[in-house]
């Protein structure tokens, strides 16, 4: 019998529902993957920014991972906010024995500009976690931190993607062009070939949670058995729709809309 597609996210929370674990689970649900979550940090945040953060004790993060891993098989998983080296270490220890695709969303700073991980853990993420991944999905500022190089053009993005794979050992790198001008073009480098993914730029300030939604969609499609680059193309279509129909709610950058049937559902 075919296994039920299941996906796990290991990340921080967003009580306002736009980013983090909440965005991931909504995306998994919409894309018909059974969603599971391990919480690393509880973040008091909303569309305007981050008000407070409390990290889970490391023993509790490990226990949550053990609870899921020992009981329910899943076909793909992602990490989002891993706030410090101790948390990264605990996660690395538990996941290194898993034999399913691992997608890293290397969350560093929220759309609001608030830092979500400690300064010293950025190198650690690159050196310790990237080699475990099937795919890492940095935006331009995150790719600049990883590579130590300024990224100003599509050519720079492609060079960064290559460096992240060849020098830092990620299985593949998807460097996102959301922070550039013009078309929203992302480049996936899988170690052999460069794949561009392009979409028209949507004029909106509602981009809270786009990175989370995108990486969760890739994870969901991979849990269904799609490989790169097809999983990325499908996820790109999904996130573009989610930005186009984003919600103008809250006082800051509103959230993306993960509903695949974007008409109102009342029953
Ligand atoms: N205004 C936009 N219109 C269309 N696509 C966009 C827009 N902004 C971002 N994207 C796309 O959304 C996806 C997420 O990219 P982005 O670079 O915004 O990631 P991120 O910075 O990690 O997310 P966040 O903004 O939530 O931190 C990418 O496919 C990117 O090209
Ligand atoms: C817990 C958590 N994880 C990730 C993000 C980044 O999301 P974004 O950059 O889209 O605000 C966030 N704001 N909160």
From TrEMBL:
SUPFAM superfamilies: Ribokinase-like. It is an enzyme of class 2 (transferase). CDD domains: HMPP_kinase. It catalyses: 4-amino-5-hydroxymethyl-2-methylpyrimidine + ATP = 4-amino-2-methyl-5-(phosphooxymethyl)pyrimidine + ADP + H(+); 4-amino-2-methyl-5-(phosphooxymethyl)pyrimidine + ATP = 4-amino-2-methyl-5-(diphosphooxymethyl)pyrimidine + ADP. Belongs to the ThiD family. It comes from Lentibacillus salicampi. Residues 14-257 form the Pyridoxamine kinase/Phosphomethylpyrimidine kinase domain. Its EC number is 2.7.1.49, 2.7.4.7. Signal peptide: none annotated. GO terms for cellular component: cytosol. Pathway: Cofactor biosynthesis; thiamine diphosphate biosynthesis; 4-amino-2-methyl-5-diphosphomethylpyrimidine from 5-amino-1-(5-phospho-D-ribosyl)imidazole: step 2/3; Cofactor biosynthesis; thiamine diphosphate biosynthesis; 4-amino-2-methyl-5-diphosphomethylpyrimidine from 5-amino-1-(5-phospho-D-ribosyl)imidazole: step 3/3. One of its GO terms (biological process) is thiamine biosynthetic process. Keywords: ATP-binding, Kinase, Nucleotide-binding, Thiamine biosynthesis, Transferase. This is Hydroxymethylpyrimidine/phosphomethylpyrimidine kinase. Pfam families: Phos_pyr_kin. GO terms for molecular function: ATP binding; hydroxymethylpyrimidine kinase activity; phosphomethylpyrimidine kinase activity.
């Amino acid at each position: 019998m075919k296994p039920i597609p299941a996906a796990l996210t290991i990340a921080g929370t967003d009580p306002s529902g736009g980013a983090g674990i909440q965005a991931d689970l909504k995306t998994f649900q919409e894309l018909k993957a059974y969603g599971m979550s391990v919480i690393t940090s509880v973040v008091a945040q909303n569309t305007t920014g981050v008000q407070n953060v409390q990290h889970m004790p490391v023993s509790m993060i490990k226990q949550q991972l053990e609870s899921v891993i020992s009981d329910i098989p899943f076909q793909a998983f992602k990490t989002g906010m891993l706030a410090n080296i101790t948390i990264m270490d605990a996660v690395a220890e538990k996941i290194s024995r898993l034999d399913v695709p691992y997608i890293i969303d290397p969350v560093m700073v929220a759309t609001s500009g608030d830092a979500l991980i400690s300064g010293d853990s950025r190198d650690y993420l690159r050196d310790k976690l990237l080699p475990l991944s099937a795919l890492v999905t940095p935006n331009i500022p995150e790719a600049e931190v990883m590579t130590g190089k300024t990224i100003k053009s599509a050519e720079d993005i492609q060079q960064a993607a290559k460096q992240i794979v060849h020098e830092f050992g990620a299985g593949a790198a998807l460097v996102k062009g959301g922070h550039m001008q013009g078309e929203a073009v992302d480049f996936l480098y899988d170690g052999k070939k460069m794949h561009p993914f392009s979409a028209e730029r949507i004029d909106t300030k509602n981009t809270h949670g786009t990175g989370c939604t995108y990486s969760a969609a890739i994870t969901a499609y991979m849990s269904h058995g799609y490989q790169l680059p097809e999983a990325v193309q499908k996820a790109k279509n999904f996130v573009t729709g989610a930005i186009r129909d984003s919600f103008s709610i809250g006082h800051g950058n509103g959230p993306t809309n993960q509903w695949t049937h974007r008409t109102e559902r009342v029953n």
